[in-house]
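Please complete every field before forwarding. Incomplete forms are returned to the sender.

SECTION A: IDENTIFIERS
Entry label: holo-423
Bound molecule: pyridoxal-5'-phosphate
Molecule representation: SMILES string

SECTION B: INPUTS
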Amino acid sequence: MSLQERDKKHLWHPLTQHKLHPNHLAITKAKGALLYDDNGKSYIDGIASWYTCMYGHSNDYITNRVAQQMQELDHVVFAGFTHEPAIKLSEALIDILPKNQQKIFFSDNGSTSVDVAIKMALQYHFNKGEKRSKIIALEGGFHGDTFGAMSVSGLSVYNGPFEDFFIDVERIPVPTTSNFETVKAQFIKLLETENVAGFIYEPLVQGAAAMQMYDAALLDELLSITKKHGTLAIADEVMTGFGKTGKNFASEYLTNQPDIICLAKSLTGGLVPMAITSCTQEVYDAFLSNDLAKGFFHGHTYSANPIACTAALAGIELLKSENIQDNIKRITKSHQDFGLKIKQHPKVKSTRQLGVIFALDLNIKMERYGDLRYRLFNYFMENGVCLRPLGNTIYILAPYVTTKEQMNKVYTTIESALNNISS
Ligand SMILES: *Cc1c(COP(=O)(O)O)cnc(C)c1O
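SECTION C: PREDICTED COMPLEX
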């Protein structure tokens, strides 16, 4: 029996309606920018496996460091104990994070990093004797699938069974130059009339909303208002972090820095799961007390796992290397050239780009998960390119190590898909 057939017996895949989509392609190997299936066919991983493997799959530098670490210290409880991989990682992160970030808290994935951030914001005010229960979020944002993270994400048709159990969230539209005065007024009103503990946002790029991009100056203005009301700003950089926007973190494009930052996905270069919620000294200090209950009683069994910390540390070293920085510049430039060209195509409505994140909207109206999306996906895969269109958006977020030739193949495959697929 093939892997695909054996898969069907016991496995339940994420985000999948198995009745409609029973088949899952078996991948047996991944190296650099390439995935290989069980027939040996290769695919360029144009989305870096959900933006995780940015330094390339099975990266030798990371895997060698992790293999060494595995011989020395596998795991130890992080409550009451510490270890060098976590210490070194905290130092390396503080060195590259926005200057106001001082403390590093570990969890296991992007969703838990958001749940931690929300709990931090709620308890920060609680510890100061203020009961603030609301969180403001941006419409169409995505922050994860655990209860807290799901609550602050945009409303989705998939959330039906859970909506009654959400935490208290107010949503405002993503600011644009045309709606800004209305959004700003709504935002100020919420901050003045509601007890708002935190404002969570994906800075500059909303990943799951098909790489929607918005203006740094507008977000900056909202953040300066947030500060005036003592509401904590929470930047979810789970997708935007570690170089994808052309800077280490998207928050670097802003003047107002967040109080709390969420990190995951390419934090460990795709090798193992781990997440971090960082915060300012001021946030941390609100939890210091002789009263035990004012501490932050949140923890995961694998918090600060030394193997994961080592992978993250090796990843940051790669990020800072000349080689990766040159690759980021090269891909940013080639995306610009491709954007100029493909914009002229009659089936393309618009293009957008920030750093190595590129997206184009098709001129074709369709449902978010309609048929065209699958036809495009199948066309790309048949041609050896793994891209997952979202609605009528095709986006590229390939690993930094994708070669010039591989990137050209991604571009030409998109172009030929536009020429060959009828709407
Ligand atoms: C993917 C993502 C998450 C959730 O991360 P998981 O590791 O899948 O739980 C949260 N926020 C953003 C912006 C993301 O892109």
